[in-house]
């Protein structure tokens, strides 16, 4: 009988410990997930800041070597190709590029993350040599979806990104 009582007491303690561990596991998992979401958002923010600086220098590290870029219905190839043949030359024509109304939603699933960004961007164009005045800024409402993967070094990198934009609707 003593052994049965001791066994019951031990089982109760183990049960409570197990229940406590299970209760703490989701909290730890949420904290880890939140930290990963923050890390993913940081990668997206670094890319956004580079575009705002009109300088793609060093941004290749934010993308996997075999990344894919899709923009407004076009297949742009790898980020390296996109940056060299599309983005960098375009940024040279701009006087300013600013994001506003930015929101990012991130879902992390193991070594992959899925991100959706919404924003408004305003592009200020450089005044051309024959222009009497600066051209009107270009304002667009944009959305981007990206898939990121955590590499062997523990860094998040963009594998695939797809963006599109349109002229903002006028509120009536």
TrEMBL record:
Residues 1-23 form the signal peptide. Keywords: Signal. SUPFAM superfamilies: NTF2-like (SSF54427). Residues 41-158 form the DUF4440 domain. It comes from the Bacteria. The keyword Nucleotide-binding does not apply. InterPro entries: DUF4440, NTF2-like_dom_sf. This is DUF4440 domain-containing protein.
